[in-house]
Specification:
With 463 residues, the chain is mainly beta. The protein has three helices and 32 strands.
């Protein structure tokens, strides 16, 4: 078992987190994995387990490509009631839903190259048996992009729900069995031309300081990210078991429409949430792929490539401008503080270690300050506040994470959502990059850094 806050595989390539499930005190994370190369290739499902979301043990490969194709992204449900009939009377069945991707058809430009399949496990994900009747949901015949099923039980309508990406929208299906899925609705909104919808997640989040919940659709786009490349947005709404509708409250407000990014940095994608976690009133636990498709195959990572963010706990906060999703670190951290009296924090990032640094101040002081990520006496990334435009500015020009020259090595700017004079910034710094939590998680920004440079200090320069 290895202490690795940002999970990474010991070998090969990883991307999207898949099939996140909690069972009997153990967090399971499956993920897209190419074990034979550090660049994207034939997709398998890798597997890792953790008792606390900090210490991870990588398990053997869960599923490998077969005659139906690569094993693309998906989800897992724990079938406590044995509704799918795979339980043996002693062991609870896990059912994995995933996309089969036929690479030969894809390369021939065939539309019918992706379809949904299932597998079951009776030993808590260690071995899997693919359903003999795969695919369980064939391609409708006209969708080149038809993937990433997220499945859950909707008790109010007494049905299994499958939401999946379908090109420029998502499809919502219903079923009471493993097969026989019926399309009930579609959801789409205007986004960047050419953006492909991927990895949809539909779940309930608690509204802070109330007994209410709201349904939230988390949707990844590639391309379609805020700065180009890939990125993930969210939509708050209602779901009746058949149709997802965006809430009217606050959606026309400029700040609310701008605030749909679950992460405002360039390196957060394919967010997923753990199923079967107890105490749902505290909010689901989420994790994302810490990368961007614009340069994912060229990052300075060896001998592996790809890692996950730190897990985050999600909730909804009511502000004057509307409803917003808040993200906080999912576990307690030993946090160090930066202030006028102690502006420098030395960091020793061995292995998979992490340093949490908190900066607290007032906006009138913050505008003349800059927080720097240091390497051997040089600033390689910085965070600043611009009071006139009420915006955050993040610069990693000296820490480009990949062998590519583009806008991703420059400055990232986004508006601050909170008007309070009090500012809290938490930095989670690892060997892979930095995750920033602004205003107690009202906004986050995730950035990879040049992993050839050793981060050894966080410092604040006060005006």
């Amino acid at each position: 078992m290895v202490k690795a806050y940002n999970f990474f595989s010991d070998f090969g390539w990883i991307n999207d987190p898949n099939g996140l499930v909690y069972h009997d005190g153990c967090f399971h994370m499956f993920f897209q994995h190419h074990p034979d190369s550090s660049t994207w290739g034939p997709m398998h499902w890798g597997h890792a387990t953790s008792p606390d979301l900090i210490h991870w043990s990588e398990q053997k490969i869960a599923m490998a490509p077969d005659r139906l194709g690569y094993i693309f992204s998906g989800s897992i449900v724990v079938d406590h009631e044995n509704q799918f009939g795979f339980g043996d009377g002693q062991n609870t069945a896990w059912i994995a839903f995933f996309t089969h991707h036929d690479r030969d058809k894809f390369d021939r430009q065939d539309l019918n190259c992706e379809y949904q399949s299932a597998a079951f496990s009776l030993d808590r994900g260690m071995t899997w048996t693919k359903f003999e009747g795969n695919p369980i949901l064939p391609n409708p015949g006209n969708l080149r992009d038809f993937r990433d099923p997220f499945v859950f039980w909707h008790s109010d309508s007494a049905s299994w729900i499958m939401i999946l990406s379908a090109g420029d929208c998502v499809h919502i299906y219903r079923s009471t069995s493993l097969t026989g899925w019926t399309l009930s609705s579609e959801f789409t909104v205007p986004v960047e031309d050419g953006a492909v919808w991927e990895c949809p997640i539909l779940c309930e989040l608690p509204v802070e300081e109330t007994d209410e919940n709201r349904w939230v659709l988390f949707q990844s786009f590639n391309p379609g990210g805020r700065y180009g490349g890939s990125g993930t947005r969210y939509f708050i709404g209602t779901f009746d078991g058949y149709e997802f509708s965006v809430c009217e409250q606050g959606q026309d407000h400029p700040k609310q429409s701008e605030a749909m990014w679950i992460d405002w940095g360039p390196d957060f994608y394919a967010m997923n949430v753990w199923a079967n976690v107890p105490h749902p009133k505290s909010g689901p636990i989420a994790i994302g792929w810490m990368n961007n498709w614009a340069y994912a195959n060229q990052t300075y990572e060896k001998p592996f490539r790809g890692s996950m963010t730190n897990p985050r706990r999600l909730s909804i906060c009511k502000l004057a401008d509307g409803l917003f999703v808040r993200s906080r670190p999912a576990f307690e951290l030993d946090t160090k503080s930066v202030s006028d009296d102690a502006p420098n924090i030395q960091i020793d990032l061995d292995g998979g270690s992490l340093c949490a640094v908190e900066v607290r101040c007032l906006t009138d002081k913050l505008h003349s300050a800059a927080i720097h990520i240091m390497s051997e006496g040089q600033s390689i990334a910085s965070i600043q506040f611009e009071p006139k435009s009420n915006c955050w500015l993040i610069n990693r020009e000296k820490a480009n994470p990949a062998e590519t020259e583009d806008l991703f090595s420059g400055v990232f700017t986004f508006p601050r959502l909170v008007d309070s004079e009090d500012v809290i910034i938490e930095l989670l710094v690892s060997k892979r990059g930095v995750e920033l939590f602004f205003d107690d998680g009202m906004q986050t920004a995730t950035l990879l850094l040049d992993q050839r440079k050793r981060v050894d200090e966080v410092t604040a320069i006060w005006g």
